[in-house]
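The authors assume throughout that readers already know how a fold can be written as discrete tokens. The format is easy to grasp once an entry is in front of the reader. For illustration, here is how one protein appears when written out as sequence plus structure tokens:
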Amino acid sequence: MQQESHRCYWIWVLVCIMVVKVSDVSGEGRLSLFNEQAERIFGCSADELDKLKSQGENNLYFWSKAC
């Protein structure tokens, strides 16, 4: 009888999760934006944001302008 070998691989992927507060005259609410929508707003990927953070830049406004 042949023994089967199973292997498990972990792949780590960075994703953007953005929570925003929106409001108008009728009230306010919070929106959770996940990877695709958040990347559209930032104008760059989670990997690019991580690279900026690793370079010591912690200003989110800078991140959105640098991408």
User: Anything to note?
Assistant: The two ends are 56 Å apart (CA to CA).
